Amino acid sequence: MENDRELDPSRWLSEYGDILYRFALGRVRNPQTAEDLVQDTFLAAMKGSESFSGRAKESTWLIGILKHKIIDHFRKHNRMFLTEDLELKEQDPQTFLDRKGNWTLGQSAWITQPEKAYELKEFWKHLNACLGKLSERHRQVYVLRELQDQDAEEICEALEISPSNLWVTLHRARLQLKECLIQKGLGTLTRE
Questions:
Q1: Is the pTM of this model over 0.70?
Q2: What is the residue range of 69's domain?
Q3: Three-class SS of residue 176?
Q4: 84 lies in a domain?
Q5: Which of 29, 70, 116, 179 has the fewest CB atoms within 10 Å distance of its CB?
Q6: What contacts 81, CB < 8 A, 6 or more positions away?
Q7: 36: domain CATH number?
Q8: 82 with 88: CB under 8 angstroms?
Q9: For all residues of the chain together, what is the average pLDDT?
Q10: Cα(69)–Cα(74) distance, rounded to whole angstroms?
Q11: pLDDT tens, position by position, 3-30
């Protein structure tokens, strides 16, 4: 299929730079790393411009490249951590369960009406702040699974972890985020 629009890398920075930077920053939480990933994305796109078939929008194609750069970043960064961060500042998950194993945390409007929470900029501001409090590993797993919608096998491969480690880490990240969001007033903690 012929490209409907010829690729013009000279306009990528002005047209897509901010979008790509915000996308990367939301995932890696480091401005310098986000800038580097966007630059790497532009370089990879220029080198692989022949792979652009024109079936997707140029911005979608660039974001796809950026997603792969982010996964590569996590994979590379993960190699620096040979052991799991066990010094977690979290509560024992059993404190959130009653004797029968049921959750003791009450649900609030942001949980029962997620479509409303999604639209609230306040929610995203608080979620990003809470993501920043997670350990690097927990944040990586949560971002890849929940925000980038990567499948478990891809995440395990990228981070070089076992499936059971993935699910435990994701569970702990969710608990920490839930607790943080509750502390920020986006839910209530009720005990039976």
A1: no
A2: 9-79
A3: helix
A4: no
A5: 116
A6: 136, 137
A7: 1.10.1740.10
A8: no
A9: 75
A10: 9
A11: 445 677 888 888 899 999 988 888 888 8
